[in-house]
From TrEMBL:
Keywords noted in UniProt: DNA-binding, Iron, Metal-binding, Repressor, Transcription, Transcription regulation, Zinc
Species whose genome carries this gene: Enterococcus durans
Gene name as annotated: fur
Protein name as catalogued: FUR family transcriptional regulator
Cofactor note: Binds 1 Mn(2+) or Fe(2+) ion per subunit.
Domain of life, source organism: Bacteria
Length: 157
């Protein structure tokens, strides 16, 4: 296991314990799959399929419960890209907010934006509307560079 993965496991074990849960082998297997596929945005079924390869005894309901617990504890985030499928994304260590996404409408690629682009917007919302922002989600829908270039090339041919 990579050092970062070990650090995440240790921190997760502590967070679970503080919330009255244990890092069971099933939860550990689920978290490990998410760590190994950190750049992907896996659905519960995809997580289950990958967990099942390592631990065939783990059921789909267990994976769903684990994902919900990890979401409630803000260890992972539940994401929806308007395709009807809930996907899961590891929250970066120390991140105060959910990171942003760029979603290509042509090929479906999802790119992550790590920097928090909405700090000033949050301040306006808090000052003007007297609303304490705890988190936010932002997905930009558009055309990625690769698809844009392909589109441009096809028009010049």
């Amino acid at each position: 296991m990579v050092m970062n993965a070990m650090s995440v496991m240790k921190k997760t074990k502590q967070q679970l314990h503080e919330s009255g849960f244990k890092l069971t082998p099933q939860r550990e297997a689920t978290l490990l799959v998410l760590l190994e596929n950190e750049k992907e945005h896996l659905s519960a079924e995809e997580v289950f399929f990958l967990v099942k390869k390592k631990s065939p005894e783990i059921g789909l309901a267990t994976v769903y419960r684990t994902l919900e617990i990890l979401t409630d504890l803000k260890i992972i985030d539940k994401v929806n890209f308007n395709d009807g499928v809930a996907r899961y994304d590891l929250r970066k260590e120390g991140a105060k907010h959910f990171h942003h996404h760029l979603l290509c409408l042509k090929c479906g690629t999802i790119e992550e934006v790590e920097e928090d682009l909405l700090i000033q917007v949050e301040e306006v919302v808090e000052d003007r509307y007297h609303f304490l922002v705890k988190d936010h989600r932002l997905t930009f829908h558009g055309i990625c560079q690769k698809c844009y270039n392909q589109e441009k090339e096809s028009k010049t041919v």
